[in-house]
Amino acid sequence: MKIVIIGAGPAGVSVAETLRAHDKQSELVMLSAEPYPPYSPPAMVDHFLTGSNAHLWRDAEWPEQTGVDYRNGVEVTAIQPGAHAIQLKDGSKLDYDRLVLATGGSLYAPLKGADLSGIYNFKSLSAAEALVKKIKSGEAASAIVVGAGFIGMEIALLLRELGMAVTQIEMLDQVMSAMLDPETAGVALAMLGKRGVDVRLNTKASAFMGDGQAKSVQLESGEVLQADVLIAATGIKPNLKLLDGSGIDHKWGITVDEHLRTNTADIFAAGDAVETTDRLTGETYVHAIFPNAIEQGRIVGLNLAGIETIYEGADRMNSLKHLGLPIMAVGLKSGDEVLQTRQNGHMRTIYLQDNRVVGFQLVGDIKTAGILRALMNRGENIQPYKDRLLNPNFGQGMLVWESITPYA
Ligand SMILES: Cc1cc2nc3c(=O)[nH]c(=O)nc-3n(C[C@H](O)[C@H](O)[C@H](O)COP(=O)(O)OP(=O)(O)OC[C@H]3O[C@@H](n4cnc5c(N)ncnc54)[C@H](O)[C@@H]3O)c2cc1C
Fold it and tell me: What is the pTM of this model?
């Protein structure tokens, strides 16, 4: 059987490695539009800070060791499910018996002027390299980052480390509003401030401006901000262009069933390109985080190997690694009861609903994240040990511990 995986990010790699663990025979082809070995985007900041190549998450020997025919610099432009073939940008075609869509996402910038040249982003290694090259050229001393979600915050911190003056604008009244509760966001904001990032909340950008080349950002207030480098960190959008005309169902992301199969025969999908169900709330949306991409890739790999496996649903979580003090947020940020403690700059907040953990936010000491997540996912009634839940050593030695997937 010939299996083709489009995309060499965490989801694609997880598909390949899971499949190979159970199926040594099938021919496995992996295609990446980018010119690198498979890499992990969360490790990019470390790479640019330390020069470490750990971001090349799988090394040059990986394809041969895994038995993968890895082809980089190959972009897929269309899919022809009827012919079991894909169309490549160079005009050639490739056939498949099974196809995996692991195409991830790209920058989503719903702003006037977002298509001007000179607007940088950090969504892929190619994009990040272009930004860091510009900064290291010595031509740039100041930057504006539009957006204070977690990628925007990573960029702002990296740029400060590289010696830039950084202004970050955010239309909402807190940073990382998708994951952090207002109090934890306040801690993160203070830490950004200490690191020299000038964050302007409640500040909405309405357009990038320039004559062909972006030079400034216009705010909704009418104010115009200028800097040497302009960066959009306004969101991500699944890479779906190649689905045009294929009949593969999608809304914002690709639609899949509980085995992560698309509506089209022999085509699966995993990672940031896919809409899945939130295991806590049952809502369906794109859950664009690393652990979900890895787990979805694992489920697709098992199903391709003939081991029927159902996806249990996506996790809602995120972490900030470069603030100097780790922050981890998992699950919901509200409930019918809130447990909280603050000590020596560390903060722990746990959200309960009917005596069950539905979310938590940890600042500083995050070692109980694994057990809290296990309790949350199992829907355990925590009443018997509620008074100990905030203890930083809670659960040591308990059997329900479950590790949080490392990000890189
Ligand atoms: C700066 C940054 C920091 C992050 N930090 C964290 C973090 O701390 N924790 C966390 O959980 N998540 C983090 N994430 C999110 C995480 O990286 C993603 O959830 C994860 O990479 C998704 O994996 P994926 O394989 O679905 O997609 P991607 O990693 O986006 O990989 C998709 C690949 O498909 C290729 N591709 C796309 N279209 C085509 C095509 N038509 N033909 C051929 N190839 C194609 C792309 O070039 C790309 O290499 C971060 C993301 C970024 C950008």
Answer: 0.94
In single-letter form, the type of residue at position 214 comes to A
Categorize the per-residue pLDDT at 325 as very low, low, confident or very high, splitting at 50, 70 and 90. Answer: confident
Q: What is the rounded radius of gyration, in angstroms, for the C-alpha atoms of the chain?
A: 22
Beta bridge partners of 278: 314
Q: Whose CA is nearest to atom 39 of ligand 1?
A: 103
Q: Which residue has a Cα nearest atom 34 of ligand 1? A: 7
75-123 tens-digit pLDDT: 999 999 999 999 999 999 999 999 999 999 999 999 999 999 999 999 9
**Protein residue whose Cα sits closest to atom 38 of ligand 1:** 103
Cα–Cα distances (Å) from 39 to 74, 128, 242, 315, in that order, read 16, 13, 22, 22
Q: Are 90 and 54 in contact (CB under 8 A)?
A: no
Residues 256-265 pLDDT 10s: 999 999 999 9
Ligand 1 atom index nearest CA of 124: 53
Rounded Cα distance between 207 and 223, Å, is 11
- CB within 8 Å of 176: residues ≥ 6 apart: 148, 149, 150, 153, 185, 188, 318, 320, 329
Is any atom of ligand 1 closer than 6 Å to the C-beta of 113?
Answer: no
Residue nearest to atom 41 of ligand 1 (CA): 76
Ligand 1 atom with minimal separation from the 270 CA: 26
CA 8 to centroid of ligand 1, rounded, Å: 9
Name the 3-class secondary structure at 170: coil
Q: Does the Cβ of 289 fall within 6 Å of ligand 1?
A: yes
Give the residue, out of 29, 31, 32, 286, with the most ligand 1 atoms within 8 A of its beta carbon, to mutate for a pocket test.
32
> pLDDT of 374-406, one tens digit each?
999 999 999 999 999 999 888 775 544 444 443
User: What's the token pair of residue 65?
Assistant: 């060791």
Give 220-237 as a DSSP string: TTS-EEE-SEEEE-S-EE
